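Supplementary Note 3. Input sequence used for the single-chain structure prediction.
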Amino acid sequence: MRARRPRALRILIVGVAIVTVALLAHASTPPELPDAPQSSNALTHTPAIADLPPMAYIEPRRNPTPGYHWKGLLLQSLEFNLIENGFRLATDDSMRYQIAHKPYWHDYVASVKQFNMRRWNDGDSFIVNYVGHPLQGAVGAYIEIQNSESQSRLQWNEPGYWRSRALAFLWTTAFSTNSEIGPFGEAGIGNEGGFTYGLKCMSHCDSTNFKPGDKYTNNTGWVDFIITPTVGMLWVFAEDYIDKDIVPLIPGAANHPTEAKILRGSLNPSRTFANMLRGRKPWYRDYEHPVPTPAYKGYGQYFLPSEDHMEWRRNLPRYQIAPHLNGLSIATNSVGCLNCRGITTGVGVEFSARLLPLLDFDSDLSYQPAASPLPGDRAGGNAFRVVFGVRSGYETENYAVRVAVRPGFVRWDRAYTTSLTSILLPNNQLGPDRYVQTGELITNPPPALGPILHFDWNVNFTGDYKLSPGVALRAGISEDLVRYRTNMLAADGVGEPPYLSWLSRENYINRGNWSYQVGPVFSF
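The predicted structure, written as discrete structure tokens, is reproduced below.
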């Protein structure tokens, strides 16, 4: 039975996002730092206002309001999200299968619709729900704290401390909500909610270990939405208290400074992780550094070019157009072979625009005429490839080498819109048979001819030889990961317990294809 997402959850998500932005943008200004002590030298004496001529009085300059690092907040939150999803993908073969073989957006929407918010528990263990998730909430809170010049310098129970942690609570609530139900959270990466499994046997349930009446779940409920930010803030309070009132009591710190620093970082695990996300040492504390120091200072890790080189790059032409001849190795159909790899040739044009000194927007449109003489369910007719993304690289006055990452699509204009046959697979899209590749063969009605579209991930490496400041020659090679819909379909219906599924019936495969390009580059 399909669970409906209640209005309360929608109100929670929207309300938390609005309040977070409003309060963070209007955070109170902390007390100003005392001015540097004045010398007793008579040359530094400031005359009284009454002693100055009327036109000589100038309003004293106030200390600027400490800034808020929105860029750092967003980038570090993105880093944290990538680490979480990377770990989940590395340790869950079912999740990897769904990402590789299922339609992402369809299954994300289907998963969100099945969130069951009429219960508290989601089926995870005590350690996961009440230890792991609160640690996630604490890290999210410290990411917000460390990107505020004022909040990061407040210690346990100092004036302004509780307001600052309230703002951190709002941010980590928004972050953890996104981690559950957002497109790059557990609903999107792993399709939490879109299918069920047995609580005891997980993805290996059969008649021997799953009996009628045994419990199963789709891993949704209120517990993570509430426990992650609330208990996470208790972690924050505990770590702040330990750092202020317990760490100074550690004996032997003066004689063993390295061991003391390691112990200090270990007693604040979530703050240590948040420090790592911004490139700080585990024991770094903002309130011990009135003037912020560069990350990794003293380690010689300087990844960016010199300021002179950055200024030189800022003055380079901002736009580039590069017409080119190209070739693409991709599956095509001919009289002698269907779905066989062949080298198609064509023309294209690349356009780029500088966004930052080291980052460009980059796009490419290519056309391969009559690339696949015969139609099929993967190719047919003329091929169009459109990709767009970002690129970066190294550039001198005479040469440039760059790498671009560009998602897009490949379109064929005269192909079969459906397959000639289908293979009907068992419906259990999780479980022991989730990788089955055999099933009942079904002959479909004659397919119609028309355009078909395949998703494409393109990674492009180019080298330029500059003939003048505005003209260069470019050669490049690319790898295109093209995603094809297969003729394998899951059976109709949602299945039987413990393996119910509301995910798509379709299955996809991914195929790598290399390409090349050669042509001039015009910069302006």
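Confidence is low (pLDDT under 50) at residues 1-14, 16-65, 296-302. The radius of gyration is 30 Å.
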